[in-house]
Every structure is written in C-alpha cells, then in structure tokens.
Amino acid sequence: MTTTDTAEPTPAPEREILTYDLFGTAVRDLAQQVVDDGFEPDIVLAIARGGLGLAMGLGYALDVKNLSAVNVEFYTGVNERLDVPMMLPPTPAAIDLTGMKVLIADDVADTGKTLEVVRDFFVDHVAEARTAVIYEKPWTVIRPEYVWRRTEGWIDFPWSSTPPLVDRRGGLAH
C-alpha cells in the first residue's frame, strides 16, 4: 500500500500591493480622516524616505504649505534593521516647532519605533503631535491616529518594489 502526502503546502505570506493609484486613494482617505477629526496641522512632518510622498499629498489635500522632513535610519534591508532607529542630520530644530500642531507622516507603522522616536523628539516642543500612516501592523508599539489600512503582510510599495537603477555602494545596478 502506498501512501501519499496529503498535507496542504504552506501558503505564502500575504502581501499587500500598493499601486500608485491606490496610493492616491490612501492619501485622500487619510486627509479626510484628519478633516473629519477636526485636526488642523500647522506643519506636516515627513519621515524620510517612506513618508515623503504621503506628507506631500497630505500637505496639498489639507492646504498645509509648511512641510518638513526628518531622516531616520532603521531598515537596512528586507527584514533587516538596526537595534534602534536613528535620526540623521540635519533634523528640524524642535524649538522652531514650538506651539505648532504637527502631523507626522510615514508609510508604515511596523514596529512603530521610528514613529515613536520622532514623536518623542518633538512632543515636548509642539502644541500637539499626531501621526498618519498608510499601513499599520498589529504589533506596532505606537498607534497612529490616522491609518488607511491594517495588515500583517509584507507591503510592496510602488516606489520600492523594484530595485534602484543605481547602487550607490557600487555603481550602476544591473
């Protein structure tokens, strides 16, 4: 008598695919959440690089012309990260934001540690700081006020789902 393995193959982890069209929808939906909440930010602060496009879109949708960015390094590769996120210079002077309502924008709250570092850096200097993300993971240490989608899956963003044209560490990419 022959036996065959009837076990189902393990399914691949779920992936979220964000297209540029869906990104436009996400920006408008997040902006509407901010409006519906009655929050009127004085400045939109992008966490670079992932939050730059979102911050620009939110700035236009909310008619906020005061945009700034902070560079934070945490991910060094796919599923590879530093022990803690590090803000890289130049950082906006926290004192220049005194009394402002700040909307912090990023692409995803995965661990949430990047959002936490940025929020904690500015929170004592601003009137109010709120966060907006396209995606939130269930294990994040910070709960953004504005979220477009929640997921456990890996996210393919349109700006990072294909390799760069240039590898700054070694010339042209192939």
Q: Based on CA inertia axes, which overall geometry fits?
A: globular
* Rg measurement, Å: 19 Å
How many beta-strand elements?
A: 10
Oligomer kind: single chain
Report the biggest beta sheet as strand number plus sense, adding barrel if it closes: 6 strands, mixed
User: Which regions are unreliable across 5 or more consecutive residues at pLDDT < 50?
Assistant: 1-5
How does the helix and strand content classify structurally? alpha/beta
The CATH topology is: Rossmann fold
**Distance between termini?**
52 Å
Q: Which bin fits the share of residues in helices?
A: 10-25%
The name of the CATH architecture is 3-Layer(aba) Sandwich
Physical arrangement of strands within the biggest beta sheet: 4-3-2-5-6-7
What's the helix-strand series?
A: EHEHEEEHEEEEE
Give the DSSP E fraction (strand runs of 2 or more residues). Answer: 25-35%
Description of the molecule:
By secondary structure, the protein is of the alpha/beta class. It has one domain: 3-Layer(aba) Sandwich (Rossmann fold), CATH 3.40.50.2020. The chain is 22% helix and 34% strand. It contains 3 helices and 10 strands. Strands 4-3-2-5-6-7 form a 6-stranded mixed sheet, with helices on both faces. Strands 1-8 form a two-stranded parallel sheet. The protein has a two-stranded antiparallel sheet with strand order 9-10. Helix 1 packs across helix 2. It is globular, with a radius of gyration of 19 Å. Its EC number is 2.4.2.22. GO terms for molecular function: xanthine phosphoribosyltransferase activity. It is an enzyme of class 2 (transferase). It comes from Nocardioides simplex. Keywords: Glycosyltransferase, Transferase.
